[in-house]
Specification:
The chain is 35% helix and 27% strand. It is built from 5 helices and 7 strands. Strands 4-3-2-1-5-6-7 form a 7-stranded mixed sheet, sandwiched between helices.
C-alpha cells in the first residue's frame, strides 16, 4: 500500500491567540516582542464577528467567529487579571471552537484576582470551557509554550518533512 503525501511539508499549527482583556493585550504584545511569530490575534468586533491580525501586524480584518475557527487548528486564550476576562466572549469562542474540533487552551501568566467574585467566576468558566489551562509566572515560558504548540520556530527556507501515514 502506498502512502499519501502530506498537504504541508512540515506541521505548523494555525493558532489563534485570544487576549483576555487589557492584561491579555499586554501579554500578546510582550510575546510579539519576544519573537513569537506566525500566529493570529483575535479581538471582539461585534455580534458574532471578530477582528483578526497577525501578531506582528498592525492592520486587521473582520471575520465571523465560525469562519475564523474553521481556518484554525488551535485557540489559545491568554490573560493575567482574571476579573478582566470577558465571560460571554470566552463562551462564544469556546462554543465555535468545539464545533470545529479545535483544541482550546488557556495560558494565565502571573494570574491575579482569582480570589475576587468576578475572578473566581472567570477561573471556573475557563476550567469548564478549555481543554487545557496552564498557569506560569512569566511571559517567557508562556511564549515558549505557544511556540511549541505551534510546532516550533522555522528557519528561513528550512522545514522538517512530515512522515507519510501509509506504508509502501
Amino acid at each position: 500500500m502506498t502512502g499519501t503525501s502530506p498537504h504541508r511539508l512540515s506541521y505548523q499549527a494555525r493558532i489563534l491567540l485570544v487576549p483576555l482583556g487589557p492584561s491579555g493585550d499586554r501579554l500578546v504584545a510582550e510575546m510579539a516582542s519576544a519573537g513569537l511569530t506566525d500566529v493570529r490575534v483575535v479581538a471582539a468586533a461585534g455580534e458574532g464577528s471578530v477582528r483578526v491580525r497577525g501578531i506582528d501586524a498592525h492592520g486587521s480584518t473582520t471575520q465571523t467567529i465560525d469562519d475564523l475557527v474553521v481556518d484554525s487548528d488551535m485557540i489559545i486564550l491568554v490573560g493575567s487579571d482574571l476579573p478582566e476576562v470577558p465571560l460571554a466572549f470566552v463562551s462564544v469562542i469556546a462554543d465555535a471552537a468545539r464545533k470545529s474540533g479545535n483544541l482550546l487552551a488557556g495560558v494565565l501568566v502571573d494570574q491575579k484576582g482569582w480570589e475576587s467574585p468576578q475572578g473566581a467566576k472567570a477561573l471556573a468558566l475557563l476550567r469548564t470551557e478549555l481543554d487545557m489551562l496552564v498557569s506560569v509566572n512569566q511571559v517567557a515560558p508562556a511564549t515558549g509554550f505557544v511556540d511549541v504548540l505551534k510546532g516550533g520556530r522555522r528557519e528561513e527556507g528550512h522545514c522538517a518533512p512530515v512522515a507519510s501515514a501509509g506504508r509502501d
